[in-house]
């Protein structure tokens, strides 16, 4: 009876011994690209790029088009008779010098902003995918540990019951073993449920990503030879958020200059042909119209200058936020990796302590309740290790995505 539990903890899922750079635990890269490229948020952002290009083309061409105006009159003059009269005018407005160039700048920077926002949309979709991915793998990892523990406790209870039948053990031992099994079964049900929910969430958001019925194991966290600090610098240099904010600031600055020039309105030039008194009087002329700008145009120019200043401040804020992301990504990856190392050391110590408890139980120095407690502590240690391993992998891969070293090519 006293040797029943000698195989419990070591029969649990074994922790990988060495880090392997190739064992990333990530889905297939080609499948990920398909899943990201077909995500609705990415498709919408790319459609906005097409819209920005069309808008830039419209700005380049200008909003003025040729207008045709015609009029026909039937006039009756006493003692002279009836006369057919008409006039015809062809007119078009023209942008004053410098305005067309500013319109093209606004369009160009707007396209640059939209393109960077599209890349950032893919970035955000990648972060969503990796978060759901590690949710699934982490829950499945704990579910495997818990299933193994349930199997161990079931075998132990069976052995205890056999001893009770042979009157070689007390019923209390069987009750304690059954309680340990019930507790382990409850944990197994919870972890299995979490794994199912995590898989469903991942599949719902990324249906193009083919998922197996069981998740792959969470690998040992891998830190590059150069460390994690270089990735932090890449988060800053590869940020599409900063590029988009800078492009918007430039577009708003160009628009402010454009609205400032628009305080002097554009002229309209027209060619006029007319016929009066049934053709006895005919002529042609040139018409020019100059709208006189007033307070409305001045107010619009002031609004654009204020919006340009706000866009400049937003660009500075974007730099602050990206720097925060880079710093927190690096700090979290480091401390999550360190925590996993400590938890793994704790697991080894727990297993060594359990071995001593088993020896003491076999020699009659401790009772079954103490041994069961030790077994439970080792079970919890395996669960903590899998949780810490998943958290470390989550933090490291997030840093790799934010630095555009994973899934995002520039």
Automatic annotation (TrEMBL):
Keyword field contains Methyltransferase: no
Record GO terms (molecular function): efflux transmembrane transporter activity
Alphabetical keyword list: Signal
Signal peptide residues on this chain, from the entry's feature table: 1-19
PANTHER family reported in the protein's UniProt record: BLR4935 PROTEIN, OUTER MEMBRANE CATION EFFLUX PROTEIN
Stated name of the protein: Transporter
Lineage: Bacteria, Pseudomonadati, Pseudomonadota, Alphaproteobacteria, Sphingomonadales
